[in-house]
Design brief:
InterPro entries: Glycerophosphate_synth, TagF_C. It comes from Catenulispora pinistramenti. This is CDP-glycerol glycerophosphotransferase family protein. By secondary structure, the protein is an alpha/beta fold. It is built from 17 helices and 16 strands. The strands form 4 sheets. A 7-stranded mixed sheet has the order 11-10-12-13-14-15-16, sandwiched between helices. Helix 2 links the parallel strand 3 and strand 4. Helix 4 packs across helix 10 and helix 7 crosses helix 8. It is elongated, with a radius of gyration of 26 Å.
């Protein structure tokens, strides 16, 4: 917003330069004093849409399948070589690899300029392993819905992390080129306060720490600079535009539209590495094995309702939804797969478990629990020498 960008042959390019906060007005006057008279502070219409919808957070979470305490971690990148994608492209796969699929959904919000520069197909190719591991690649204009549902955000020096922080979402910066922004800007000042990701340390520990310890009030002095007129931006902008056109304003109020809901049907990720930790099953996608260290004391779970390929030959546990399961499917699976130990048929809130010797065990899931994990519980009992009980 300095003079070379807002003047043409010494004449202001725009009749009005719209700013969102009065702190920008102070900086604009310093950077472009001859154009300062064109500045109009009129709030932020984008943030106003987020504010309009913030009370419906539960709705946005339910539409993404975030129930029973499952958390949403949004990883956001702006564009350019100094962005998160430009500096730490593998971070997305690491997040998918290190966060258990039953406890977390990871969503990627990628700046549209990345797709414009490289092509949407290339973005999808780069994230293919993570997507097979359960990553939600958010459509370019649905990022607001993801932000409203988020439990934490990992980002860079783009605007989305600052919006997240202003909404009170725990925000961690993975990369931040301090010389890329005006050091007096709120985003640059927020970077000096916000937690920064430590690449070599456990991402899960850092995410959970941020969720439990992040205090939005600590950053309110900075994040409050997102707008000087919360909820009023459209009102002010419409008055400005109609005034410039010398036309009367419409009689109806200018109010922001709510953010459209983003629907995402949770997919059953397969294959999965599963392990029992302190009596609780944790499952991680095999598709991103290359992004993390080998799983200790884990077994491989394959979903028979998806194309299994070679993964089935390594499966310790095979699961299948009861819907349209053919008679005798478990017996045929044991005949075909000599390494298989447990076959589980998921029926509503229970899992009908079969062993190689024909033993059948029925177990019921706890409220909110995926019945498929019961097959992993039984497998762990068998390999650890524990006893299993028929129900």
């Amino acid at each position: 917003m300095s003079e070379p960008w807002v003047l043409h042959e010494g004449v202001p390019i725009a009749t009005a330069q719209v700013l969102s906060h009065f702190e920008q007005l102070d900086r604009f006057r310093k950077a472009a004093p001859t154009v300062a008279h064109t500045a109009v502070v009129a709030g932020d219409p984008c943030f106003d849409r987020l504010l309009e919808s913030a009370a419906d957070r539960d709705l946005y979470r339910a539409a993404l399948g975030l129930r029973d305490g499952r958390r949403l971690v949004v990883v956001n990148t702006t564009w350019g070589p100094r962005s998160l994608f430009g500096q730490q492209l593998a971070l997305v796969e690491r997040l998918v690899a290190e966060l258990p699929v039953d406890d977390y959904l990871v969503a990627a919000v990628v700046h549209p300029n990345v797709g414009h520069a490289h092509g949407r197909a290339e973005v999808e190719r780069v994230l293919a392993h993570a997507r097979r591991g359960g990553l939600l690649l958010v459509p370019p204009f649905d990022w607001r819905a993801a932000l409203l549902a988020a439990d934490a955000l990992v980002g860079d020096h783009g605007s989305v992390p600052f919006y997240a922080a202003a909404l009170g979402v725990p925000t961690i910066l993975a990369t931040f080129p301090t010389d890329a922004l005006d050091p007096e800007s709120p985003i640059a000042r927020f970077a000096g306060e916000a937690p920064h990701l430590v690449p070599g340390s456990s991402l899960r520990d850092q995410i959970e720490k941020a969720i439990h310890t992040y205090t939005p009030a600590e950053h309110a002095d900075v994040t409050g600079s997102v707008t000087s007129f919360p909820g009023r931006s459209l009102e002010l902008l419409r008055a400005l535009f109609y005034g410039l056109l010398e036309l009367p304003e419409p009689p109806w109020p200018a109010t922001p539209d709510p953010v459209p809901v983003l629907h995402h049907h949770r997919q059953r990720v397969s294959p999965l590495w599963a392990r029992v930790v302190e009596g609780r099953v944790e499952r991680f996608p095999s598709a991103v094995d290359h992004a993390t260290t080998p799983r200790d004391r884990a077994h491989l779970v394959v979903d028979a309702t998806q194309p299994t390929g070679r993964a089935a030959e390594m499966a310790d546990v095979l699961i299948r939804d009861a819907h349209e399961a053919p008679e005798g499917w478990a017996a045929r699976a044991f005949d075909r797969l000599p390494g298989l130990t447990v076959a589980g048929l998921v029926e509503a809130d229970r899992c009908r478990l079969r062993l190689r010797d024909g033993t059948e065990i029925v177990r019921h899931a706890a409220p909110g629990q995926d019945p498929a994990v019961l097959a992993s519980v039984l497998y762990n009992e068998l390999v650890s020498g524990g006893r299993h009980q028929s129900f």
